Here is the input.
Amino acid sequence: MIQNKEVLLQKLGLIDYQQAWDYQEQVFKGILDIKAQNRTLPEEEQQITPNYLLFCQHPHVYTLGKSGHLDHLLLDEQGLAEKEATFYKINRGGDITYHGPGQLVAYPLLDLDNFFTDIHKYLRLLEEAVILTLADFGLKTGRIEGLTGVWLDFEEQKNPRKICAMGVKCSRWVTMHGLALNVNTDLTYFGNIVPCGISDKAVTSLQQELGRPVVMQEVEERLLVHFQELFDAHIVEKAHEERY
Here is the structure.
């Protein structure tokens, strides 16, 4: 099999969660369809599978993963309406999380057959890309054993704070969903949930830690540099209007 290291970057801007999810499902299915077809063809007739990386932000929304508990959402329908937020049960791993303006959401839709077939390595490299990005802004972050995502005060854990949540789906080595990095996020929205099912640890953002707003494009650029290096990928930006 020929490995395709090209990753098509698409910046979707501020996009409704359902619309982005539908688009992910469309791309995900397209990659799986190519893989299924390739299994019936001789090697010289097989198509390479594409890889995508979607960057976006969402209006206020809470999403609950397959292993999550509904009681970790502390709002009823009226409360959601008052917060101008929506709620979805979705097909990624993990518990409940929040997405909103000022948060960089990255959805890699990769055929890991193009890179490596190891889901744990995939998750660790996503975390590493974020850790290196935050280091570029002067923040020392890392992992806490047994918990996904990226944390401050991850060593002594006197006041551990999560700055990046992660939750992925992988089928036949094709990935979807991804990570949410708090850049200039309104952190009060996390007060309406038990974030990722963890009740004893705080949530933070780049803005909160640095004491100033951060230019989103600068964060995107640094994350792309580290993603490209860690995955040995070649990123090509694809025009926004071409995404459908």
